[in-house]
């Protein structure tokens, strides 16, 4: 009898536990279904990424006057870099040289000591006027349509006296936290339909720093646009240097692997822009409409002939081959291996759980470096 009672009791508790489990599962299922239905019929409000453009017009008169954040001395700095003036310990290294029927692109980089990488590129667009190319580059609203890295852009302030414009741009790159750019820029026009633009980082009260974005703290970029003599084509020479918080070698590799497809996409967008340009998408008052004149002492450009860019991209060989052979014959140093491991760990963290993807990118970077070292080592031994 006692055994029968215990068996009945066990059956009772088993049935009770089974019912409780079923009720719990039903409650969980109901909760998930109700959550999905709620999110479907009551979507959350959109998040505002950037400050309102109206903030630039609501500033007091004392703050609406932008000082010369971008001055003629910055234009001089740009011209010097476009003329490839480097320090004694700096050398250019060719990154890419490609072309199609409608465009050609050449780029090289330089690694200054204790500063971000410098890039110098030359792009020639066939069947394009300098004015069209200038307007295309300065139309930030149109850029949001074709440049998928640009999440948002807003004009913060415009100085109608000196033509300096300030804006905020949010960019998103794979595996990385979105970057926030608060920049000031200014345009100049020289003789023979030559245009310049220089851009640099700045601070603005309408764009406080936010934790969800990485603020780019160092940014120097600019370009020169002019007509190619004797051809229906325009050339843009660009200097670029920024510190976006990336590993230098990783940034260099990403640039080399992705820049050509980006330039081709830009060329397609330019051809479409030539058709829709009569419908302005940028603000009515901008740096493009308030372009400044190049000072006479800086307007020394010879428009009769363009410099031979291919000749200026020199090959750099060491004066003494012996030290190079010794350095190339070494195995990857412990310092390089340690840096590689740090890159792997950083990319795994940046990928937010997608460790496989982060590790693949990092390993591609490391294997590329090892392959280059191995190729150089074998060449040195053969020599």
From TrEMBL:
Domain START stretches: 88-275
Signal sequence residues: none
Listed GO MF terms: lipid binding
PROSITE patterns hit by this protein: START
InterPro entries: START-like_dom_sf, START_lipid-bd_dom, START_lipid_transfer
Entry's Gene Ontology cellular component terms: cytoplasm
Pfam families the record matches: START
Protein name: START domain-containing protein
